[in-house]
Amino acid sequence: MTARGAAATTTAPAVTVGALAWAAVAAAFVLLRLGPVFQAPVGGPELVHLSGAWQASAGFEDARFVPTLLQAIAALTFEWTESEVPARLVAFAATATVPVALYLLRPVLGNAGALCALAVLAFDAPAIALGSTASAMGLDVAIAAWLAVVVLRGGLPAPAWAAVAFILAASGPLALPLVVSAAGVAFARRDPVRARTLAWMAAGAALAVALATWRYGLGVDGLRVPPLDLLAAGYEERWSSATTARLAAVYGGPVLVAGLAAAAVSVVEAWRSRRASREQMILLAWAGLALGWLATSLTAHSPLPLAAATMPLALLLGPAIVRAASAVARAEWRVAIAGLPLAFLAFTIVYFVLARWARSGSRGGDFESTLLVLMLVMGVVALAIVAAERRSTPTLFIAAGVPFALLLVATASGVAFSGSREPIPSPVSTENARMLRDIAMAARSGQGGLIVVHARYRDEATWPLRGARGVVAASRIPPDATVLIWPAGTSIPDGYSVVEGDWSLLLEFHPPGDILDYVRWLGDRTRVDARPERIAVYMRNAP
Amino acid sequence: MTEVLAFWAASLVVAALGLPFATWLFRRFPDAGAGLSFALGLVVVSYAYFILRVAGVLPRGRGGAIAAVTIAALAAVWFAARDRRFVGTVRRRAPGMLLAVAAFTAAFVAYVGFRAYTPDIAHTEQPMDFMYLNAAITSPGYPPHDPWLAGERASYYYFGYVQAGVLTQVAGVAPATGYNLALAWVFAASAVAIASLAAALARWWSRVRSVRWLAGTGVLAVVLLLFLGSLSGAFEWAAAHGYTNGPLYRAFGVEWLIPCEAGQVDNCYAGVTSPRTTAWYPTEFWFWWRGSRIIPHTITEFPFFSFLLGDLHPHVMAIPGVLVALAIAGAAWRGRGPLDWRTHRRAPWAGLLLAIVLGGLAFTNTWDLITFAGAFAVAAAVRNMRALDSPADVLATVTYLAPVAIVAALLYAPWYLDFSSQAAGLYAYTREGSRPEHVFLQWGPLLAAAAVVGVWGILHARENARAAAPFTLWVAVLPLAAWAGLAAYRGTLADAVDARGAAGWFTLGLYAALAWALATASAALALRRHAAAPIAGMAALGVLLLYGGELLFIRDVFFDGAPRLNTVFKLSYQAWILLSVAGAAGVAGVVRTVRQPLQRAMAGVPAAVLVGVGLAYAVTAVPNRTDGFEDDTTLDGLAFVQREAPGEYALVEWARANLDPSTVIVEATGRSWRRGEDGQPQMTGERVDYSDAGRVSARTGLQTPIGWRGHENQWRGASSSWQVEFARRQDLVDRVYTATRAADALAALDELGAGYVVLGSTERSRYAANVLPDFESFLDVAFESGDVRVYARPSFEVVARP
Description:
The structure holds two protein chains of two kinds.
Chain A: H1 3-11, H2 17-39, H3 44-57, H4 69-77, H5 85-95, H6 98-104, H7 106-109, H8 111-122, H9 125-131, H10 140-153, H11 158-169, H12 176-189, H13 195-213, H14 226-236, H15 244-273, H16 278-296, H17 304-330, H18 336-360, H19 366-388, H20 396-417, E1 428-429, H21 431-447, E2 450-454, H22 458-462, E3 471-474, E4 481-487, E5 496-498, E6 504-510, H23 515-523, E7 529-540
Parallel strand pairs in A: 2-3, 2-4
Antiparallel strand pairs in A: 1-6, 4-7, 5-7, 6-7
Helix pairs in contact in A: 2-5, 2-8, 2-20, 3-4, 4-5, 6-8, 6-10, 8-17, 9-17, 9-20, 10-12, 11-13, 12-16, 15-16, 15-17, 15-20, 16-17, 18-19, 18-23
Chain B: H1 2-25, H2 34-54, H3 62-82, H4 86-92, H5 94-115, H6 126-138, H7 159-171, H8 175-206, H9 211-227, H10 232-240, H11 246-251, H12 303-309, H13 314-334, H14 341-346, H15 348-364, H16 367-387, H17 392-411, H18 413-418, E1 426-428, H19 436-460, H20 462-489, H21 493-527, H22 533-551, E2 552-554, H23 565-593, H24 597-625, H25 639-644, H26 646-658, E3 665-666, E4 671-675, E5 681-686, H27 695-700, H28 709-716, H29 720-738, H30 742-752, E6 756-759, H31 761-766, E7 780-785, E8 788-792, E9 796-800
Parallel strand pairs in B: 3-6
Antiparallel strand pairs in B: 1-2, 4-5, 6-8, 7-8
Helix pairs in contact in B: 1-2, 1-3, 1-7, 1-8, 2-3, 2-7, 2-8, 2-13, 2-15, 3-7, 5-8, 6-7, 7-8, 8-9, 8-13, 8-23, 9-23, 10-24, 13-15, 13-16, 13-23, 15-16, 15-17, 16-17, 19-21, 19-22, 19-23, 19-24, 20-21, 20-22, 21-22, 22-23, 23-24, 29-30
């Protein structure tokens, strides 16, 4: 080989472990969101908003149409398709750019820190559901991530702020905590803001608000500021069967706990050093505001505040994981090499005992109870022994990290792959409701007349009956009704006969209620508390 | 418990964002204004909420309230960043701030504990208060709609309800619980605000930095404002145990406690005499009510009574804001350098803050605007007189105040545009004057404390007092001249002189002398640049308000029966606040300043004795109000409905959860109907105000065609056009409930724009069963629980075109 050839060999681009890791995590991020695009049932906020978009596309006034950019796009897609997939693909395409945004945040979070943050985000179940479905907030995860890049890295030319402000004002509220924290930090630090930048921002936001107020062509019905409207709606509307608190307990536990710990460490360090970088302040303020939002929403029925909280916590958690890993690598393993496996063994036995109880639906006998307590004590003692040896203490991150990772993967895979049996999203539009549409349309094409939905089901019926013609919502049976979708348990109206079947428009999935249910659900995610809302279907007898 | 914690936490968050504003305004206060930041923060947040909802930017509901808090927090951060001394001030005053938080918490918890025994939103004007609170929370648009007059916007000073609504929403508690917690907030915010203000005034005077002494001054102020009651309480207590010395009771004007003699029915005690009480305190139902009606044909309410009764009224909710305004006046008086238009140029945002706070006085309780914005104007003028020569001082004062007034008017324009005042001119009071013994019963301790300040001030600055006295005499003379002029103008002067009576003239003389003395003391001390001058000034203003209530009144709907009822009520309430501040700071200052024990005792002991006797009212009224603390506790103001009429409670819950806030519901208006002998429905009676008419709209904030008609008269003026409209609405509602044909009922519903008809226990009691139509034949049953039903108009909506 010539010298020239040797030089060429050494300068050839090499595939590093880091690059591979980035590619793998980014692929996981994208793939975990690709499945729901095609297989997730329409439910939760998406059901509400797609129904609104459908009605808007059909030219009906509907309060469920909140004029965000994605809602407008969804309404546009309904001009040529009845499927939710095109609108979801738009949300997915935007969300798929999040790995790029995280990659650009390397100067702020560090290379490994950004990678870990992306890994956490990739497996964040509420964010998976939000970023791959076509609710009015479908673009929010991507917008928040890119806004973080813009805010934390800076350097955006003034006219570009018009686009930023436009997108923010035309989307949901997920990025609002970041907007407020960035503004608050800028105020607190007395950062100079140029009047030109402010003017561009005002212009962009005004354009978005104007379009929203015009409802993208549907007409003006009062001032509309979509992020604020959706923020308020999250407190009032039922976008989830379970309360936000229960969703947080089931889906947000690992990120919330670990993220809070990371935030606390960050705050303590800043307090001790009497110094905090602008980026650190923004991240902490963002996390604080998002957690405040979550705290005030605990009794609400919305997954949005959970996704809003896990995002900044993931960004704080990424660098913290790197530091923890570094500490583990430097730790003394003499005690931990025995203590940690012992603890894992003990806790694994505890898990299996609980899982057995969960499967059988009742607590076991004295032997199992004693074994459970003993294993618990043994596990805790083993960890305490490891903790007592100061140089071994960092190895406890492994003890915390393993269940963290397992839970994260379990919840993420549940939402991404289990299809239609997760409390996120819930309630969902049922498959047999769609069948119902076909039956109703067939009957109507034969007999003419109207498909009448009881007024109580007006909102629930919009999505499954989309595409049907001659549908009315009424509280009484009109004379020209052909098909009645009516409350179950009502007597059969004269001249009508029952359409046999277990009909329901909505199906609710509720998260496990107690620890045994939870353990069982971890092992078998299809065994979830499902509650269909039964309805009756009547068809006019043929003359 | 969760609700209490949530409300408390929300209060602290709001106070925290009020802190930068408070430290800027009240930097020289011992707590840097932390005690005032509770009220200040809430005013700022609530204004942001109000104006952004009017603009349509903020949506309805909890999210809107939280967004307002966030926006106000950003403003607070911005403000704090521009105040270079903010961080240093917070560090320096941290002990005072922590004390303020602890005091707020203690007062809040204490009042919650009391209120948990009497939580019902059931009597007096509480349904009206609850109606406005619900309107502030649920109204789909802003300015909020009037639930008792569907289609119209509220015409009342309702900023207090907006504030209570914001806290309720941020805390995420139900309005019926928020009502009671808002009362606790007002109590606690008033306590820390007056403690902060009184301690600051006392410290400026005595220059003492002892935390214990400052805290003691604050406690004294809290006692005077929030716990002191009518001295009649001591007589009530004694009478309950059988001690009714006739001459003594007559001398003190409490004849109503002396058992009636044969044939006597008026102004004597006609209840059970042996024994009057079965406990150590008077057990007669609401005996303490009489303490708020001491002077005949007036209301002489005071803060303790208000919190005991538990009406969430504007004058109660205004207390914290009024104290902030007084503190601003005190700080302006105390500050250095002239205040003129350049002040606004240097700190325009500070001027905006002043406009929000002072302008908010009118929006909260309109009566307070003139008094307390006036106090601020006087303080600014005094400061400019110190800093500038005349006439530059006058010009500076005008150029300083005018922009604040103009901006305040603009900021609150959306409210002014809807507000129609019932005031119909200034009149001379020409009937019997107040008896001095009643004045003593009602304001004796506070006037004694004020007298201590006045005497000390005059003695301390004798020479200046001599010089000032001829000028300050006008303070006493001008109101009298105005009275005489107005009475002469209406041709009633001679009669008025006679009607007032000897006792009335004595009272007038007493007030005039005290007002003159205090004004003289204030002027004399101001000439010596003594820090006690604003204290004497506040006391003088307080006495002047009582004096004014004897001479003049604003004509309103009570003109014929009790012409000065509202004037005395509102002015004496303001006087109580002013005299509490001045009394506490003044007595503390005098006791600290006077060296000789005898003089110190002469100053402190009489006031202390009177205050001690005045506390008998609170000591006995609280167990009376709570039935000896023996009932179950809850903070749900509608728990009594759940207990006594579960169907009605379920109706409220259902309506709140399921009906659009813009819905119009039809419910009983207060009229009663039965079927006459001719077979036609006949009206048999009408009891509207202070009844359960409009109860559903009051409890939910939904609109009903017509609620308490008499109150609508008060709020909108009794013009003939409104009378016609009110009657039309009542007739239409009656037509719904008495229609013999479905078409008539539906036509009436159409005309009212109503979608729902309530048929509950109230409607069944007002409309006899044989006049009620068969609603089910033409309406849908939307809700049913027991005998309570809500009917809805049948719906038919095309959701997909054929």
